[in-house]
Amino acid sequence: MPTSVALVSAIRGPVILITLGTLIAIEHAGGMRFSRTWPILIIIFGVLKLAEYMKGGQQ
Amino acid sequence: MRNSFVGPIILIVVGLLFLANNLRPDFSPWRLLLDYWPYLLIAWGVVRLAEIAYLAARNQPLPKRGVSSGEWAVIIFVSLVSSGMWFAFDARDKIRSGRINLRGLQIFGETYEYPVSASVTCSKNPRIIVENRRGNVRLIGSDSDQVVVSGHKSVMGLDKAEADRINDRMKLEVLVQGDQVVIRTNQESAATDNRVDADLEVQIPKGASVECRGTHGDFDVSQITGNFEVHSDNAGVRGQDIGGNVRVDLRRSDIVRLMRVKGNVDVKGGRAADIELDEVAGQATVDGQYTGSIEFRRIDKTLRFSSQATDLTIDRLRGRVRMSDGDLEVEDILGAMKLRSRSKDLRVSRFGGTLDIDLNRGDIELSPGSSILSTITAKTSSGAVTMHMPDNAKYDLDAVTRRGDIDNLFGSPMERRELDRGGSIRGNNGGPKVILETQRGTMTVTRGGSMSSRMEGPEAPKAPKAPEAPKPPTVVER
Known about the structure:
Number of strands of chain B: 31
Strand content of chain B: over 45%
Strand content of chain A: under 5%
Shape of chain A: elongated
Order of helices and strands of chain A: HHH
Low-confidence stretches of chain B: 97-106, 453-461
Radius of gyration of chain A: 14 Å
Oligomer: heterodimer
Shape of chain B: flat
Number of strands of chain A: 0
Number of domains of chain A: 1
Number of helices of chain A: 3
Helix content of chain A: over 70%
């Protein structure tokens, strides 16, 4: 059974990718420009790192 | 790295897209990629996530990283290419639809033309007011007492329907209001970004006075006995055979050419290129920064020219004045001349009146003709001074250079004297005062009234210009 740490670390890439795609899709749809929304990527990355740390702390 | 099914899926999808393109040419996989590439990224992430969930559910070892660095590289590449192409396609669509405006001018689309004509009867000496925002207007005086307008409007539009709509909103008006005739093309009421022009040819009674207003376009008026007035942001102005006064007020201009004017001429050229005045019976006042050629001929009363760097006044110009970048040539004046300039090489020939010249920089060459009739004062801070003294002239000459060579080619009775690094040439036989002075430069006095005039006949080809020292690309000071 893979650990939760490994799971969180594995989904980090795909989640970031989905976020990136979403932000650009928003721009294409005429919403907020990517140049204004990109910090969300850092936030998501930070949240995932935090989750990884907390899962690691549990074990 | 373990196998993933993303790679094969991408291959299948790409194959399908190109197959679709081959079977149906109007279907473009690039266009599809452009429109949907952000969703492609999302789908990619979702597939990866699903993969990991699948592995986790089956208790299989998870990859250390959900998306490999190679994949990130591909993602970044796709993003850059797609966004670049997206911009390109976007721009192309705008161009195709004719929606690109460059400084208010539409450069795509087609021009549709509509003829216009109108005529009204008016008095013998009407005041004609022309309001045409864009386009050229030509007014010609005639013997009738009618104002006859003909010409055409051009309207830029994507299609005829759009052009028609715009054309309907800009109606040509010719209104008689007492002694006044107003010709108006109403381009502003079309209220459009699309380019609209009106080129008019107008026949007017020759007793008319004309007042033209516009923002962009030329005005050409000939054969009227009244006044001619132009106000425009950017216009070429031509006037021939004008009986009254001419007033031209422009912010920019490529040419102002006025010929055979009975009254006074007042030109405010703004930032202009060329100006040419010929046969003005009154006085001529010219103001502005001219970067092209400047030529004045036969101004019966006073000519006043002023620009940032040069102020020139000439009384009764019988010959001509020609001015270009760094040169000023004056030929044949009956009255006085006064010049203040920052930088000009000056040549004056055949003059009878008082001469008062003060240059900051530039050479001075004077050739009075057969005799010296009045006082001459010519000073330059830096430049050579050459005086072609007439053989039998009466003069009281005092020619000084503070620093430079002195050449007495006239010979006796003139006296040459050296002093410090300069010197002087003096001579007096009881004529008018001639004061020549340079702070730094050669002083030459020659015998004989001729000079190497570079002013040829009117149609003579221009002498090739000497190569100029490179200058910073600023406005030419004059």
